[in-house]
Every structure is written in structure tokens, then in C-alpha cells.
Amino acid sequence: MPTFDEILNNAGPLTLRQAQGSGTSLSKEEIKALLAAEGEDKKKLFDRALQVKLEHLDNYVHLRGLIEYSNICTKYCLYCGVRCKNLKVKRYQLSDEEVIECAKLAHELGYGSVALQSGERSDKAFVDKITYLVQEIKKIDNGSLGITLSLGEQTEETYRRWFEAGAHRYLLRIEASNEDLYYKIHPHDAKHDFKQRLTCIDSLLKIGYQTGTGVMVGLPFQTFDDLANDLLFFKQKDVAMVGMGPFIPHPDTPLWEYRDQIPSAEKRMELTLKMIAILRLMMPEINMVAATANQTVDPQGREKAILAGANVIMPNLTPNEFRENYLIYPDKACVKDKPDECHSCLDVRLAAIGHKVLYNAWGDSVAFTKKHQ
Ligand code: 5AD
Ligand code: FES
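That is the input. Now the predicted structure with 5'-deoxyadenosine docked in place:
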């Protein structure tokens, strides 16, 4: 087993890595050693990840204006506050006009892309509606907005329809790449099927979406072995984008019961940052989001994620009156911020850490673009 410094240095200078192809091949044991880093070693890991990011992607941050379309969901994942069995949630669905207004606002603010997210439905009315909305968003300034969808598991045919309508990126987190752990955080039934999740990710990759996946960090029952395997899973699938955030227990969900059996919020945050940093070494040119969950756990969480290797932020554009109903987890950050406040606050916050927003661009994954050119 190499020493800590050897594992890190294995990432090598840019020219060496280019000769080797994309990123380092860290073994599971090496990843686990990096996950366990403390003190000076931990700092070295974050410094190295930032250096690798800056070499490959510069100091740009890409924005996706997030539109939380609806909290109506047919599933009941054990961690999620908007699961259909949570009867305390007031359900909503934005009107077509509201969605288009949000997308226009994203365009005006120079965000370059929108991400349409929703609770999971796959009925015909929903599929048709999304197809229509994607087409309408594409009409804004002749297709100048990039469109990411985050609408859960669908048939390959549906994914294809939405792709043909103009969506080109899709986020579907695997949540846990270990099947046993998957069934500890989801019900084990036909609606929550691990194999189906994998099939969906494969369909998205096959259709040609820039495909994003990810996991929650600090889940009950999750081990370092699981986390290392999650990173190896992203690498093996060769995804274009990854989103990882700390698990936040929600009082109206079954996993709340295990809130005392997970690492502290601080530890979950730190583990998330380490996951981001290690993955940046392994996949230097993918897009990685600084998830809102980071900011919820730590007011500086988004900045810390950017400094650990993330390069995407998803400012929330959902009309404020609906945001408080989209509480996947409690105390979600920015629920009360107005879209334009978020906007100016971002520029300042990013400048303070030596980064800048790349406005008016889709901000596609460099890894994906290179692979498909
Ligand atoms: N804590 C943190 N993240 C959560 N998500 C869902 N519920 C929680 C929670 N309680 C994440 C899931 C999902 C994404 C939209 O939000 O990973 O894919
Ligand atoms: Fe809605 Fe999991 S609870 S998809």
C-alpha cells in the first residue's frame, strides 16, 4: 500500500495525466485511505483537488437555474420529505406560465441553463406536459438555454422523447451504489427497485444525455467501503456529472429514527467534501455540483464544496411561495431568498474564494464533450 503522499501524488501533473487519459485510477483501499485523512493530510487532499480542478476547468462556476416544478410524488423513499406518504406536505404543481417565467428569468440573469426538477410521476399527462415545457423553454431566444431534467425513473421511450424535445442533461442519483444499502434507505418493492435504477442510468447514457448521478453522504448504515465503491461506480459508468450532498434527517420520514446513528452534521459535511475532492482527482473534467444540502448543513458549505473541487451551482428560481413545500429535507438553504438576491450574493461569495461565474454559457461537462467530439 503506497503512503498517503504517494496516493495523492499519483494524480500527477497535467501533462502526465493527459498521457494517462482521464484522471487517476485509485484503488478502493487508496480511496478509503483518502477518506480517512485528518489534519495536514486532509488539507493536502483539498489543496490537490483544487489544483487539479483549476488546471482542467479553470476557476469557472456554471449555474443552472433550478425550477422545482412539482412536489407531487408517487414514491416514498425513506429519507425524502416529499414522499407521498408524508401527508403534512401541501402539494403543488407550477403552471406552464410559471415555468416559462422562471426559464425567462434564468435567461435574463445570464444563467445559460435551467434544471427542471420534480417529484416522480410517469403518467401520460406528466410525460406530455414535460415534453411541452421542454419545447417551450427551447423556444426562448432560439434555444439559447441548456436544459437539465431531474424527474426520476422513466421508461427509455420517455427519456428519448424528452431528449428529442431538447433536454440534453439528466440527473438521476443512484443514492447508494450498494444494493443492500439501497434497500435500507428505500422500501423494497416494485416502485423502488435498485436494478431498475441502474437500467435507467444506462438508458440515459445510451440515449446520449450528459448523465449525472450521485449519492447522499452520511446515511445510516453507510460505511467507508460503500463510499469508496460509490466513487468507483461513477468512474466505471463514466458519467458526465455528479452530485453529492450530506444526508439530512427529516422528521416526517422513516429514517428520522436513525438520526442518532449517523455522523454529526459537521462530519457528514466533511465526508462530502472529501468525496468531492477524491472524485475530482479520479474524474478531473466532469461537472460536480455544490449541492444545496451542503449550504444547509454549513452556511459556507457551497463555497467549501467549490474549493474542494465542485464547479456547478444550482440557484433556486422556484417562486418563493412554493419553495417551502419542496422541503426534501428540513431547513433547506435559500428558501426565503429572492432569485435576484441569490444572484448578487453568488457573485460576491464566489469572488471571495477566487472563482467566477461563467455567464451566458451552457457549461457542458468537459469530460462529456471530449468523449463525444
Ligand atoms: N437529505 C439529503 N439529501 C436528500 N435528498 C433527498 N432527501 C434528502 C435528505 N433527507 C437528495 C436525494 C435526491 C436529491 C434530489 O435530493 O439524493 O436525489
Ligand atoms: Fe419521491 Fe423518492 S420520495 S422519488
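Confidence is low (pLDDT under 50) at residues 15-21.
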